[in-house]
Design a protein that fits this description.
Largest sheet: 7 strands, mixed
Number of helices: 8
Number of strands: 13
Strand content: 15-25%
Distance between the termini: 28 Å
Order of helices and strands: EEEEEEHEHHEEEHHHHEEHE
Radius of gyration: 19 Å
Shape: globular
Structural class: alpha+beta
Bound molecules: adenosine-5'-diphosphate, ligand DP6
């Protein structure tokens, strides 16, 4: 029987941007995310028909570098002596475009390994394992998640019914991975310390705003935090940015809608695509208004 394990993408409202420690993986600042149930990865593992480990995403054979990255990760929690395997994964989320495929892919992979190797790990253990593959993936196990500086992951609750859509600027694979980009910012950004301080404050304020179901505050912190994260890329050496003119145009559209009274806010991750946060009850009218101004692709992330 074909049985796939599912992993979900998540988008941070307060970003994780920088590792305080790589082993174990610990973030510099506590961060908070929202799971996107429509953007996912499904993965299954089969015995390899060759004498090599193999890894496919959307039926495309992945590079040797990708195979090495994935096998090094699964070696941390699977039997030392094992047969060669073939990992088959399908992403509905665009791969490596700043839409969190690393989170959905890693979550699906960890669950698929648990299944295939009959590891019988508890849910908490799977969350722990997941972050060693990709930090942000530990948050995908919960609708709203906080990943703290000591490595623990907490489920948060909020009475609001959130929605998110992506204004797609570019779905192509980015030139610099999140991992390498954040490492460069940690090592060289002249504003990195200020970013960490701000993100810590944003985390505290966001938790309160979520508890109070204060959407205006949640949105304002989300935007500010994303911009502060992106500022660290331009203050790095060599300096770089994930954002393009089209990303800025998308942000302006969100601001224009807000001026017209629509409740919506933007955020961006390690890629040019702009995500719009709103309340589910407003989805139809926001989609209608945004479509008039954004003729390119729009992805609805939650049903
Ligand atoms: P994104 O913005 O999409 O998260 P990243 O650069 O952070 O991009 O991560 C992309 C990496 O995530 C890929 O190079 C691959 O290593 C991993 N990844 C993406 N999809 C999958 C998947 N389905 N299964 C396992 N790993 C995946
Ligand atoms: C910008 O979790 O992909 O999306 O731990 O190195 O795999 P690694 O990084 P990753 O970084 C996510 C960065 C971000 C912000 C966020 O999701 O919090």
């Amino acid at each position: 029987m074909d049985s796939y394990s599912l992993g979900y993408a998540n988008i941070a409202l307060v970003k994780y941007w920088g590792k305080k420690s790589k082993d174990p993986v610990l973030p510099f600042n506590p961060n908070i995310s929202l799971r996107l149930d429509n953007l996912l990865s499904k993965t299954k593992i089969e015995p390899s028909l060759t004498d090599e480990d193999e890894f496919y995403i959307n039926d495309e054979k992945q590079s040797q570098e990708e195979v090495e990255k994935i096998t090094k990760f699964i070696a941390k929690f699977t039997p030392v002596e094992r047969e060669k395997i073939c990992i088959k994964s399908y992403n509905t989320v665009p791969t490596a475009a700043g839409l969190s495929s690393s989170s959905s892919g890693t979550m699906a992979l960890v669950l698929a390994c648990n299944e295939y190797f009959k590891l019988n790990k508890t849910a908490e253990e799977l969350v722990e394992i997941s972050k060693e593959g990709s930090g942000s993936s530990c948050r995908s196990f919960y609708r709203l998640a906080a990943w703290l500086e000591d490595g623990s992951v907490e489920e948060l609750s909020c009475d609001l019914d959130f929605g998110m859509m992506v204004l797609v600027v570019n779905e192509d694979r980015k030139k610099i991975s999140s991992r390498i980009a954040m490492e460069r910012c940690v090592q060289t950004s002249t504003t990195f310390d200020a970013w960490v301080e701000k993100a810590k404050e944003d985390f505290v304020a966001m938790k309160i705003a979520l508890e109070n179901a204060d959407f205006e505050k949640i949105g304002a912190i989300t935007e500010e935090n994303a911009l502060a994260m992106h500022a660290t890329t331009t203050t790095s050496t060599p300096s770089f940015t994930f954002l393009t003119d089209e990303s800025y145009r998308a942000m302006e559209i969100v601001k224009t809608l807000r001026k017209k009274g629509y409740r919506c806010y933007f955020t961006m991750d390690a890629g040019p695509n702009v995500k719009v946060l709103y309340l589910k009850e407003d989805q139809e009218k926001i989609y209608e208004e945004i479509s008039k101004l954004w003729q390119k692709k729009i992805i609805l992330c939650m049903e």
